[in-house]
C-alpha cells in the first residue's frame, strides 16, 4: 500500500492525539506502524511484534511483506525481530543478502524484495516483550537519523503495549479477587449451616467441610456451594 510521506513532526503530533484510554491496542499499534512507514525515510513496510510468555505474533503491520518475514522468524525461532525483542536493543541489517546471523532469514527477506531492516526492542514487562520492525527495499536504507526516528516510534509503541498489559493484569487481578470473595462468602454460609445443624464451633465446621472436600476430591468452594444450594431448596 502506497502512502504519502509524512514529516516526522507531523507524525509525532498525530501520535500525541491518540487517546490510549479510548482506542483498542491493535488500532493504536496499526496507527504507529502506519505513521512510522510514512515518516521514517526508506521504510517499505512496518510491523510490530509482541512476544507474550514465549509466543510471538504480529499485532500490527502495513503489508504482506512484513507479515511474511515475521511469520518465518516465528516459525523458525530466529531472526532480528526476535533477537531485538529478547535483548531489548536495536538491530540494523544494512545488507540482507550478506546477513548470516540467522540462517535462512536472508533468503526469505530477499524473496519479498527487502534489502535492509531495523528492529527496535520494546521492553514492556517481565513476560511480555516486543519489537518494532521496519523493512526497506534498498541496501543501507537507514541512516542515523532514520534509526533515531524508528526508536522514537518504538518508544510510543512500548508505552501503548505497557498500558494494555497493565490493564489486562489489573482486570485479571480484579476478577481473581472477585472470585476469591465469592468463594469466601459461600464457604462462610456453608460453615454457618453446619454450625447450626451440628452445634459446633466455626473451626469444627470448617474441618467438616475440608474433610468432605478431600473425600469427594472436589474444591472446597464447590462442596460449600452444593451444601448451601441444598439447604435453600429445603
Q: By helix and strand content, what is the structural category?
A: alpha+beta
Instruction: Please state the CA-atom Rg, rounded to the nearest Å.
Output: 27 Å
Beta-strand segment tally: 5
Give the full name of the CATH homologous superfamily of the largest domain: GAF domain
Topology:
Elements lengths: L7 H9 L8 H15 L5 E8 L2 E7 L2 H13 L3 H8 L2 E4 L11 H7 L4 E10 L2 E9 L7 H55 L3 H15 L3 H14 L1
Antiparallel strand pairs: 1-2, 1-5, 3-4, 4-5
Helix pairs in contact: 1-2, 2-6, 6-7, 6-8, 7-8
Which terms summarize this structure?
single chain, 234 residues, alpha+beta, Beta-Lactamase, Arc Repressor Mutant, subunit A, 2 domains, five-stranded antiparallel β-sheet, 8 helices, 16% strand
Structural summary, described in words:
- This protein has 234 residues and is an alpha+beta fold.
- The chain has 2 domains: 8-171, GAF domain (Beta-Lactamase, 2-Layer Sandwich); 175-233, Orthogonal Bundle (Arc Repressor Mutant, subunit A), CATH 1.10.10.10.
- The chain is 58% helix and 16% strand.
- A 5-stranded antiparallel beta sheet has the order 2-1-5-4-3.
- Helix 6 crosses helix 8 (220-233).
- The mean pLDDT is 84.
Condensed summary:
With 234 residues, the chain is an alpha+beta fold.
